[in-house]
Structure formats: structure tokens, C-alpha cells
Amino acid sequence: MIRAMTDRALHLDSFIPYRLSVATNAVSAVIATLYQRRFAISIAEWRVIAILGESEPLAPRGIVERTKLDKVTVSRAAKALETRGFVARAADAADQRSHRLALTAEGRALYETVAPEALAMEARLLADLAEWERGALDSLLRRVQAAAEACDI
Length: 153
Fold this sequence. Notes:
- By secondary structure, this protein is mostly helical.
- The chain contains six helices and two strands.
- Strands 1-2 form a two-stranded antiparallel sheet.
- The longest helix is centred in the first third of the chain and has 24 residues, at 16-39.
- The protein is globular.
- The mean pLDDT is 90.
- InterPro entries: HTH_MarR-typ, Metal_resp_HTH_trans_reg, Tscrpt_reg_MarR-type_CS, WH-like_DNA-bd_sf, WH_DNA-bd_sf.
- GO terms for molecular function: DNA binding; DNA-binding transcription factor activity.
């Protein structure tokens, strides 16, 4: 016998995964427009630059792990950045099958230009939140992410 659905019906406007997706899409659209118009880079390219700006040099799989982007997206972004002279590729001494990516001087300069703009956009997006709300939001997002990563599906 098929069990009936629970009393709670699905309503997208109150379904948290949907709300997170919609909020993410809205924020990403604003950020993508900023990055494209001001710096001629995509969100994926910025994520690669930002990760390398914080922890370079790094193998592409490390970027995949940190950004949660798929391998193809990271590879395309890295290749585009390398072609434009923002990223350099070098053999990985620890793993001859892999390579490490690092920001060039031009890439570092771009990072140092974009990072303050990204922080300013974040401040603008969160301006209506109290400091404790920002902290709570950060904490809750980390917990939701951890719960999602722990799902065994």
C-alpha cells in the first residue's frame, strides 16, 4: 500500500531548498553583472582567482573542493584565466599527473582590485541585517551546507 503524503504540502515559497536557490540566483545575478561589467570576468573565474588569492598555488581538484564547482567549470575558468595572463600553470612536484595553478602578477592585481568591490557588494546586500543577524546567517548557512554534504544519497 502506498503511504499518503504527510499533512504538510509542498509550497515552494516556504520550501527552504527552493528559497536558498532563488536567493542564490538573485545574488549571483547581481554579482555576475558586477564582475562582467567592471572586470570582464565570470563568477567561476572570480572564484578561481579568489581561491588562488587566498591559498595559492593549488591543484584544480583543490579549487573544485573549495568552490563546489564541477571539474569542467573550474577547468574552463582556469584555462580562460591562463589565456588572459591572470593564472599560471606549473607541474605539481608531488603528483606528476597533476599541476598547480597560481596567480600571476596581473592576476594578483586583479584580485586586489576585485576583492574590495566584492566586499562592498556583500555589505550592500547585507546592509539591512543587524550584526547578530549576519553572524546567525553565516552560522546557519554553514550548518545547512554541512548537513547537505553529510546526506548519504
